[in-house]
Specification:
Largest interface: A-B, 66 and 71 residues
Largest sheet of chain B: 3 strands, antiparallel
Strand content of chain B: 5-15%
Order of helices and strands of chain A: EEEEHEEHHHHEHH
Shape of chain B: elongated
Helix content of chain B: 55-70%
Distance between the termini of chain B: 7 Å
Radius of gyration of chain B: 22 Å
CATH architecture of the largest domain in chain B: Up-down Bundle
Number of domains of chain B: 2
Oligomer: heterodimer
CATH class of the largest domain in chain B: Mainly Alpha
Largest sheet of chain A: 3 strands, antiparallel
CATH topology of the largest domain in chain B: Butyryl-CoA Dehydrogenase, subunit A, domain 3
């Protein structure tokens, strides 16, 4: 807690922790307590500023754990199968990346691998790494750096886009051969539901509030 | 000035991108004191970086649309598909919803991103005071919608993995696919390097 003493004319001296600056238009606003499920928006440009969730830590942890399990299941079991004239070809989520690498298409392989595997997996694991110790009132090693990696990876995790791509691929091939959806496909759909829900209930402020309390 | 309110920059404060902490600008040289992320009043060289990335993406947009994104080789015969011919094939097959989806994700979204970012860059460069709120919303749309153009790249990777039946049928990704993936990635970086607060900075000045 520190006082903002370099007071600017017209602005009363106030505690900096009460202030929030809009990330889209830089307008300074005073934080107000919200009710469960509410979201504060910038009064000038309408950007979402912060939200309030009861038991955010417990809910996010539960959903993230479920996400890790579903991620493993989705990648271990076959995602889709393709059968044509008696020959059956099965694929997993990473098979696409491996086929591209085998073909020497490194750029697409890297993009697909990052968006469908590396970013979502690291996101889940780092979220667990940050939240699990905080749940038991200790701070994990390098928490700030780990949290920043989560923030950076966020936009590159494209599970829901991948699912839509898979549906397009199924329809494209359905005229040519028999396409089957594997167990991995259903786990993958579950993974998307769980990670989207985790994103919705996760309140990043809890990380810093807890960290301040335990250190 | 027409509007009551004070920005963090006016108040000599700066907010951390990563954790949102507001701190005096003078105390932020070594990064955010809470999460240690680098702190900037505005994203560094935002206009130059965004302009360079938009130009690069616009250039790659041409091979992405001209060259085939994949070739289906079946019984020795090869058939190449470009992004547009993929959409046309869905229309010919009567699969209109899917044609709309691919048209939207692969053609409209990348165009919208390039045109939208160019418009934002020009308006900030010309110190426009026109509808800042709507321009900020446009920025948020451009930033959010970009990921959806990856659909075609994922379709190609799945087809390449599934259709490997030797001489019966094989699918090979083409240069168009590499260019298209590059367009998507570069426009995502372009959107991330643009700072929407620049739209508002001109509003603080006396006209």
């Amino acid at each position: 807690m520190d006082d903002w003493t370099e007071s600017t004319p017209g602005i009363p001296v106030m505690d900096l922790a009460e202030l929030v600056a809009c990330h889209d238009c830089d307008l300074l606003q005073r934080r107000r307590p919200l009710r469960h499920g509410e979201r504060a928006r910038c009064t000038r440009c309408g950007a979402g500023l912060y939200k309030e969730q009861h038991d955010s830590l417990d809910k996010t942890l539960a959903l993230t754990l479920a996400g890790v399990i579903l991620f493993v299941v989705a990648n271990v079991f076959p995602f889709m199968s393709f059968s044509l004239e008696g020959r059956v070809q099965e694929c997993r989520i990473l098979s696409g990346v491996m086929a591209l690498v085998a073909d020497g298409k490194w750029v697409i392989a890297a993009v697909v691998g990052l968006a469908s595997f590396i970013a979502p997996l690291l996101n889940l694991l780092l979220l667990l790494y940050v939240l699990l110790p905080l749940k038991f009132d200790t701070a994990p090693w390098k928490l700030p750096a780990s949290y920043r990696v989560i923030e950076i990876l966020g936009p590159w995790s494209m599970l829901e886009v991948y699912l839509l791509g898979a549906i397009v691929a199924v329809v494209k091939l359905s005229g040519m051969a028999d396409i089957g959806l594997g167990f991995g496909f259903h786990a993958f759909a579950g993974l998307i539901i769980v990670t989207t829900a985790a994103g919705a209930v996760f309140d990043p402020r809890l990380v810093w509030n807890r960290l301040a309390r335990v250190t | 000035m027409s509007r009551a309110g004070l920005t963090a920059a006016d108040a000599g404060l700066v907010a951390c991108h990563a954790c949102g902490l507001v701190m005096p600008a003078g105390s932020a040289h070594d990064g955010c004191r809470r999460c240690r992320a680098p702190v900037h009043q505005r994203k560094p060289d935002s206009l130059q970086r965004t302009t360079a990335l938009v130009l690069a993406a616009a250039t790659l947009y041409i091979p992405a649309n001209v060259f085939p994104i994949m070739t289906v080789v079946s019984f020795g015969k090869g058939q190449s598909d470009t992004i547009l011919s993929g959409v046309v094939a869905f229309i010919d097959a009567g699969m209109y919803p899917l044609a709309m989806l691919v048209l939207f994700a692969s053609i409209i979204v990348p165009m919208l991103k390039l045109v939208g970012l160019t418009f934002l860059l020009i308006s900030v460069h010309r110190r426009s005071r026109w509808r800042p709120r709507d321009r900020t919303v446009l920025y948020r749309v451009v930033e959010y919608v970009g990921r959806w153009s990856m659909i075609d790249v994922f379709v190609i990777s799945l087809l390449a993995a599934l259709v490997q039946l030797g001489s019966i049928a094989t699918i090979v990704p083409g240069i168009g696919a590499t260019s298209f993936a590059a367009v998507v990635v570069i426009t995502m970086f372009a959107a991330a390097s643009f700072d929407p607060r620049l739209i508002w900075d001109v509003m603080e000045e006396e006209s």
